[in-house]
Design a protein that fits this description.
Chain A is an alpha/beta fold. Chain A is 36% helix and 19% strand. The chains are: A alpha/beta, B alpha/beta. At the A-B interface, helix 3, helix 4 and helix 5 of A face helix 5 and helix 6 of B. Chain A: It comes from Mesorhizobium kowhaii.
Chain lengths: 334, 323
C-alpha cells in the first residue's frame, strides 16, 4: 500500500490487467504517440499520461494507436471484443462521443440482446469527463446520463484513486461493455491504493461519511465537494451521510434508500445540467420507492441548463460548489 | 481455378436457396406472418455466394440491413432464420433481433446491421483479432452503395490500412440507396475510385455472374491472407425489388424493373454450367426441389413455433450479468 494519484491508479490498473491477460489491448488516439515522427515514440503516454510506460512494456500490437476516427476506434474495439479480445478503447474526451455514438448505443450496447444472448462484448470505453480545466464547451462535459439511460451499457465514475483502480480492473474483467469515466479534475488527487490488483463490484455504493440527519448522494468529482460541505455542516452539529454510488448503471438503489430511511433527508449532487440528470434520476427513484422515509423535499444540486462556459469566472459558477451543496442541505433542515 | 461438380452444385444450391427463401419471405410478409420491416436480397444472389464461397466458419462477415443472402451464403441455418424473422422464441436470436439483426457467431456471421455503414468498423475489429491472434482468417465488411457514403465507412477503410488488418470490404452496388440512385448520391461516381484513394486495391466486378465474383474474391483472399493488407471489391448488381418488402417503387419505371430481371444471376449460372455440360438438367432440378422442401419445412416450423414469453424473455440477455 502506498499513496498514489488517480492518474497513477488508472495506469497501474491498465498495466496489471495487461500483464494478467494477453487478450487485453488498448486502442485509441495517441495512447503511444509519436509514430512516424522524429522524436521519442511512446514518450507521452497519452495526453494526460494514463498510459505512461505501457508502450515500452507491451509494444505496438497491444497499444494500438489509431487515426483520429472515433467511430472506427469504437467499432474496431467492438468487433475485436465480439471475436475474443478484451479491448480497452479510449475516447480522449467524452465529448467526442458525438462522432461515434452509433457504435456505442446502436452496436455495442445492443449486440447481446439483439443476438438473443449469443454475444459477449467485453469492452471498456475509457473517457475523461468534467469541467474545471478551462477547456470550454466541447472538452468539459460529463455526459454520464446519456450512457446510463442505454440498456446494455454499464457506467462507472470513480471519485478517488482507490475506486479508480478497483473499478477499472472490474471494468476490464467484466463481460459486458463498460463506460469508464475519468474525472479530469481528480487526476492529481492522492490516497492510499493497494499495490496488488483488486476489484470493486459494480452496483455497490461507497459510504464515505456516516451521518443521521441528512444524506448527500454525489458522483465523480462532486464527491470531494460533498465531503467539504458535510464537514462545514458538521461544525454546526449537523450529521451528514455522504454516499457515492460509484456506478450509475447498475445503480445501488438499496444503499441509497437505506441511507434516506435513516436520515429522512436527501440532497443529490450531479455535475450535469439538470434535465434528465442522475440527480433527477436518483431523486425520482427515491420519490417513487422511498417517499415514506422523507421528512423534507429532495434537493438537487446540478449545473445550470447551459453548455460549459470558457471564462474562468463563468466556469467556476457553472460547477456545483461546496457552498451551494451546504445551502441546499440547510434549506431542508429544520 | 476450375470448380468441381460438387462446388458447382453448392454454388447453385446456395443461390437458389436465397432466391426461394426471399420469395417466400415476401409471400409470408404479405400474408401478415412477418412483423416489422424486411429487406430482401433478390437479384444479388451471386454477390453473397461468390464472396462467401471460400470462407470458413472461422472467417467473419459483417452484414447490412439486406442481410438474409449473406447469412445463407455463410451457411446460417434457414429454419433458424425464418423463426427469427417471424419473431419466434426458437429463432437464431430468440426473436429479439428479427430480419435486420440476424447473427450467428458460430458461423462467423457478426450480424445483419440496420444502421447503414454500421458493420465496416466492426469488421475491422474482427480482422484485428485475427491479426493479433495470428489465425490466418479474414473478416469481410459488406456495405451497399448507400453505405459507401457513410463517414463510418471512410473511417473503417482508413483505419484498416493504418492497422494493416486482414479485412475485405465488399461494396454491393445495387444502384439504389433506399429510393435514391447511386449515380445521384455518390459524389465522384465511382465507389472503387474512392477506395483506391485510401491506397487499397479495389476491383470492380460484375455481380450478376457468380464466377467473376468468386474469382475476384479468391484474389482478395490471397492478398489478405498473405498479410498484404486490406482489399476491396465493388460488386455491381441489380436490386430486383424495392428497398423494403411492400415498397411500391413509384420511383422506378416499369421498363427499368423489367430490364433488371434480364440480369438474373441464377438462370445465367444454370445456362453457363449446362452449356459446358458440367451439371445435367436432372441435377439442377434435384437441387431446386430439395431447396423448395427446405424452405417449406422452415416456414411450416416457424409458423407453428411459439412466440417468446414476455414474463421471462423481455428482460433477459441485456447483460451477461447486471448487479
Amino acid at each position: 500500500m502506498s499513496k498514489k494519484t488517480y492518474l497513477q491508479a488508472i495506469n497501474e490498473a491498465l498495466r496489471q490487467e495487461m500483464r494478467r491477460d494477453s487478450k487485453v489491448i488498448l486502442i485509441g488516439e495517441d495512447l503511444v504517440g509519436g509514430h512516424g515522427a522524429t522524436g521519442e515514440v511512446g514518450g507521452a503516454g497519452g495526453p494526460f499520461g494514463q498510459m505512461r510506460g505501457l508502450y515500452k512494456e507491451f509494444g505496438a500490437d497491444r497499444m494500438i494507436d489509431t487515426p483520429i476516427s472515433e467511430s472506427a476506434i469504437i467499432g474496431a474495439a467492438a468487433g475485436a471484443a465480439l471475436t475474443g479480445l478484451r479491448p480497452v478503447a479510449e475516447l480522449m474526451f467524452v465529448d467526442f462521443v458525438g462522432v461515434c455514438f452509433d457504435q456505442i448505443f446502436n452496436q455495442v450496447a445492443k449486440f447481446r440482446y439483439m443476438f438473443g444472448g449469443n454475444a459477449r462484448t467485453p469492452l471498456v470505453i475509457r473517457a475523461t469527463i468534467g469541467a474545471g480545466k478551462r477547456a470550454a464547451a466541447q472538452h468539459s462535459q460529463t455526459l454520464h446520463p446519456l450512457f446510463t439511460m442505454v440498456p446494455g451499457l454499464k457506467v462507472a465514475m470513480p471519485s478517488n484513486p482507490y475506486d479508480a483502480k478497483g473499478l477499472l480492473i472490474q471494468a476490464i474483467r467484466d463481460d459486458d461493455p463498460v463506460i469508464y469515466l475519468e474525472s479530469k479534475s481528480l487526476f492529481g488527487m492522492e490516497c492510499e491504493v493497494p499495490d496488488e490488483p483488486y476489484r470493486i463490484p459494480f452496483g455497490e455504493a461507497n459510504i464515505l461519511r456516516e451521518g443521521k440527519d441528512l444524506t448527500i448522494v454525489a458522483l465523480g468529482a462532486m464527491v470531494p465537494r460533498a465531503e467539504r460541505a458535510a464537514a462545514e455542516l458538521a461544525k454546526d452539529g449537523i450529521s451528514v451521510e455522504v454516499l457515492d454510488p460509484r456506478t450509475t448503471s447498475p445503480l445501488d438503489e438499496e444503499s441509497i434508500l437505506e441511507s434516506v430511511k435513516k436520515t429522512g433527508r436527501l440532497v443529490v449532487v450531479d455535475e450535469s445540467p439538470p434535465r434528465c440528470s442522475l440527480a433527477a434520476d436518483i431523486a425520482g427513484m427515491v420519490a417513487d420507492k422511498g417517499f415514506k422515509f422523507l421528512k423534507a423535499p429532495i434537493k438537487q444540486v446540478t449545473c445550470p441548463h447551459t453548455p460549459v462556459p470558457f471564462a474562468p469566472i463563468l466556469e467556476d459558477a457553472y460547477l456545483p460548489s461546496p457552498t451551494q451543496i451546504e445551502m441546499a442541505a440547510r434549506s431542508i433542515l429544520d | 481455378m476450375q470448380l468441381s461438380r460438387d462446388e458447382l452444385k453448392r454454388a447453385y444450391e446456395r443461390m437458389f436457396l436465397i432466391r426461394v427463401f426471399e420469395e417466400r419471405v415476401e409471400k409470408e410478409f404479405s400474408a401478415g406472418n412477418i412483423p416489422g420491416f424486411t429487406h430482401v436480397y433478390l437479384g444479388q444472389e451471386a454477390c453473397a455466394v461468390g464472396v462467401c464461397f471460400e470462407l470458413t466458419d472461422e472467417d467473419y462477415i459483417g452484414s447490412t440491413h439486406r442481410g438474409h443472402g449473406h447469412c445463407i451464403a455463410k451457411g446460417v441455418d434457414v429454419e433458424g432464420m425464418m423463426l427469427e424473422i417471424m419473431g419466434k422464441a426458437s429463432g437464431l436470436c430468440g426473436g429479439k433481433g428479427g430480419s435486420m439483426h440476424i447473427a450467428d457467431l458460430k458461423k462467423g456471421m457478426l450480424g445483419a446491421n440496420a444502421i447503414v455503414g454500421g458493420s465496416p468498423p466492426i469488421a475491422v475489429g474482427a480482422a484485428l483479432t485475427q491479426k493479433l491472434n495470428k489465425t490466418g482468417r479474414v473478416a469481410v465488411a459488406f456495405s451497399g452503395d448507400g453505405g459507401a457514403n457513410q463517414g463510418t465507412v471512410f473511417e473503417a477503410l482508413n483505419m484498416a490500412m493504418v492497422l494493416h488488418v486482414p479485412v475485405i470490404f465488399v461494396f454491393e452496388n445495387n444502384e439504389y440507396g433506399e429510393f435514391t440512385t447511386q449515380s445521384y448520391a455518390c459524389g465522384g461516381v465511382h465507389i472503387a475510385d474512392r477506395v483506391r484513394g485510401f491506397g487499397m486495391p479495389c476491383e470492380v466486378v460484375d455481380g450478376t455472374d457468380f464466377f467473376p465474383v468468386r474469382e475476384a474474391m479468391q484474389r482478395a483472399l490471397e492478398h489478405t491472407r498473405g498479410d498484404k493488407g486490406p482489399y476491396a471489391l465493388e460488386i455491381q448488381c441489380k436490386r430486383f425489388g424495392g428497398h423494403y418488402v411492400g415498397d411500391p417503387q413509384v420511383y422506378r419505371s416499369e421498363k427499368e424493373l423489367v430490364e433488371a430481371r434480364a440480369y438474373d444471376p441464377i438462370p445465367r449460372f444454370r445456362r453457363a454450367v449446362s452449356e459446358a455440360a458440367l451439371l445435367s438438367e436432372a441435377e439442377f432440378n434435384e437441387i431446386e426441389s430439395a431447396v423448395q422442401d427446405r424452405v417449406d419445412i422452415a416456414v411450416q416450423s416457424a409458423l407453428a413455433a411459439l412466440a417468446p414469453d414476455p414474463a421471462t424473455d423481455l428482460t433477459k440477455h441485456v447483460y451477461v450479468k447486471y448487479a
